[in-house]
Design brief:
alpha+beta, six-stranded antiparallel β-sheet, 3 helices, 32% helix
Amino acid sequence: MDINEIMKQIRKDKGITINRHGKPVHHKTGYYVSVLGLETVPSRKDTLIKLKIKKHLSSIEESRFYYLGVWVNKGRCYIDISIHINDFWRAKYIGRLFSQKAIYNCKSGRSITL
């Protein structure tokens, strides 16, 4: 998937999760936990968003455990690197370990505040 297709998907669905090969991922169960920081970019800055996505994709190329999450909320674009964890309690523990405010529930499509 090229960067322009990724941007179209973000606009259409208000977000996307991408694996290390740049392919969209849709886990039906489990939780995403951000482990390597979170960046925010004004959502109207497409050029900057594209640069950040490319940068983060290149940083996860070597690991099959990392995913790139990009989503839009209240006019801002958020970009993070996450891991997918099946067990709720383990996801909560790791989320707290990495000082996260929330984890993402793949089944419900909602964040869970920690």
